[in-house]
């Protein structure tokens, strides 16, 4: 019997298997941010265990509330800052160099095919786009990971999602993952790894694959994962060029992390995306999804374009296509947050920031703040946001607010129309 990519990664990192159902894995990277890590740091300090297993394998950032908005968030940042200094963690990103973790860390080359990665953040599954096993964990597991470099997981079970056909113009990876979550529900991949394969995935950029894997958790998945290929190697080439003679050599090596043709899956789901329309959520669960035409005409108060799901340069380019030469509708406010300083700089160079500003958008520094209602864009009671983020729980962006999840094309079109609208009407 062949093995899935997850089974291969688990086997290669196995430290111990106390029961058939549980495997203790060596970790390649432990990622940290200022919301969940300070609790782990303080507990380790209190126990007299203030050390890190390998300061070159710890990557840390202040990204959720940055710059700090009050004394509490300033203290969280200080705990991270002091800890990074105390343990000489080189890859620590403070104000000015920081960005949304799941966009910044791949951009810095901290992920490789076959890696094991944890972080105290549910959207760590984003990094599975590179053929890594990456999972969000609780504080206790994060603590152990920081201290010992290991983490315990259930023996992997994988469901395979085969994406066939061809995406039409104006339909993106965000629409695809929303359609998948609608089909399998928020519990459809619980305790499973979702393996995304097929010609649609093969033709996706790394940014699109990150969007796809980012929302695996919204279907309950432990990790989303794609097969590493030439697209992966080309993205990583600035960081791996000393390890391989050519990109093709890297691609050939990465094939060791491909699932075998006779691997066993818990479930196989095949979806043809050819007729897929832009998607949008309604209600307060990410599986409450409709074709966007069904919600056309629903008014919005705020547009938010950013986050670890859709704050990369490709996303800003998509939105700018719609916004160029247009203005926000009366009574609608727009916020855009480039996910990293590099994305911000690139958007400046390409004139994208100017397009957003001319349309009437507020341009923020890279931060996760608005996505989870922590800062910079919180909704008031009864307000509605068309958002490129990943979560629409009740109160997510502010108590009493409603969040409609959608693609950057769709959010930009809503900004111009003042209501939810099919973005394809705004693409030439």
Characterization of the model:
The structure is a single chain. This protein is of the alpha/beta class and 428 residues long. Helix content is 32%, strand content 19%. The protein has 15 helices and 19 strands. The protein has a 5-stranded parallel sheet, with helices on one face. The chain has a 5-stranded parallel sheet with strand order 17-16-15-18-19. β13 and β14 (289-291) form a beta hairpin. It is globular and about 60 Å long. The termini are far apart.
Topology, pairings included?
Blueprint: H1 5-12, E1 14-19, E2 22-26, E3 29-33, H2 37-46, E4 58-61, H3 71-86, E5 92-93, H4 101-107, E6 116-119, E7 133-136, H5 139-148, E8 150-154, E9 158-164, H6 173-184, E10 193-197, H7 199-202, H8 206-214, E11 223-226, H9 230-240, H10 247-254, E12 267-272, E13 279-281, E14 289-291, E15 302-305, H11 307-310, H12 313-323, E16 333-336, H13 341-349, H14 352-359, E17 361-363, E18 384-387, E19 402-405, H15 408-417
Parallel strand pairs: 3-4, 3-6, 4-5, 6-7, 9-10, 9-12, 10-11, 15-16, 15-18, 16-17, 18-19
Antiparallel strand pairs: 1-2, 2-8, 13-14
């Amino acid at each position: 019997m062949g093995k899935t990519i997850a089974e291969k990664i688990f086997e290669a990192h196995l430290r111990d298997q106390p029961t058939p159902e549980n495997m203790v894995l060596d970790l390649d990277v432990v990622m940290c941010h200022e919301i969940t890590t300070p609790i782990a740091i303080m507990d380790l300090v209190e126990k007299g265990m203030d050390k890190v297993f390998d300061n070159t394998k710890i990557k840390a950032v202040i990204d959720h509330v940055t710059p700090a908005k009050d004394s509490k968030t300033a203290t969280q940042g200080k705990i991270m800052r002091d800890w990074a200094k105390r343990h000489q963690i080189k890859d620590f990103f403070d104000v000015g160099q920081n960005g949304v973790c799941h966009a910044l860390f791949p951009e810095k080359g901290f992920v490789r095919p076959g890696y094991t990665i944890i972080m105290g953040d549910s959207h760590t599954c984003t990094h599975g786009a590179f053929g890594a096993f990456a999972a969000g964990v609780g504080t206790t597991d994060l603590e152990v990971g920081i201290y010992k470099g290991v983490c315990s997981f259930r023996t992997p079970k994988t469901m395979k999602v085969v994406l066939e056909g061809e995406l039409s113009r104006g339909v993106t990876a965000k629409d695809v993952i929303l359609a998948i979550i609608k089909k399998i529900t928020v519990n459809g991949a619980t305790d499973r790894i979702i393996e995304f394969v097929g010609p649609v995935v093969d033709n996706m950029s790394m940014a699109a694959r990150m969007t796809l894997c980012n929302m695996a958790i919204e279907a309950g998945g432990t990790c989303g994962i794609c097969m590493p290929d030439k697209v992966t190697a080309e993205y990583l080439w600035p960081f791996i060029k000393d390890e391989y003679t050519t990109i093709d050599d890297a691609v050939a090596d990465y094939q060791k992390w491909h699932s075998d043709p006779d691997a066993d899956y818990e479930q196989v789901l095949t979806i043809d995306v050819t007729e897929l329309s832009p998607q949008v959520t309604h209600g307060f669960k990410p599986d409450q999804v409709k074709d966007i035409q069904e919600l056309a005409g629903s008014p919005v108060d705020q547009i938010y374009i950013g986050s670890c799901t859709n704050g990369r340069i490709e996303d800003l380019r998509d939105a700018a296509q719609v916004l160029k030469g247009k203005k926000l509708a009366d009574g609608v406010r727009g916020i855009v947050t480039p996910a990293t300083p590099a994305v911000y700089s690139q958007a400046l160079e390409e004139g994208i920031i100017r397009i957003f500003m001319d349309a009437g958008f507020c341009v923020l520094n890279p931060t996760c703040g608005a996505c989870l209602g922590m800062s910079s864009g919180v909704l008031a009671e009864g307000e509605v946001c068309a958002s490129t983020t990943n979560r629409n729980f009740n109160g997510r962006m502010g108590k009493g607010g409603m969040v409609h999840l959608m693609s950057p094309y769709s959010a930009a079109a809503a900004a111009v129309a003042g209501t939810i609208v099919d973005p394809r009407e705004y693409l030439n």
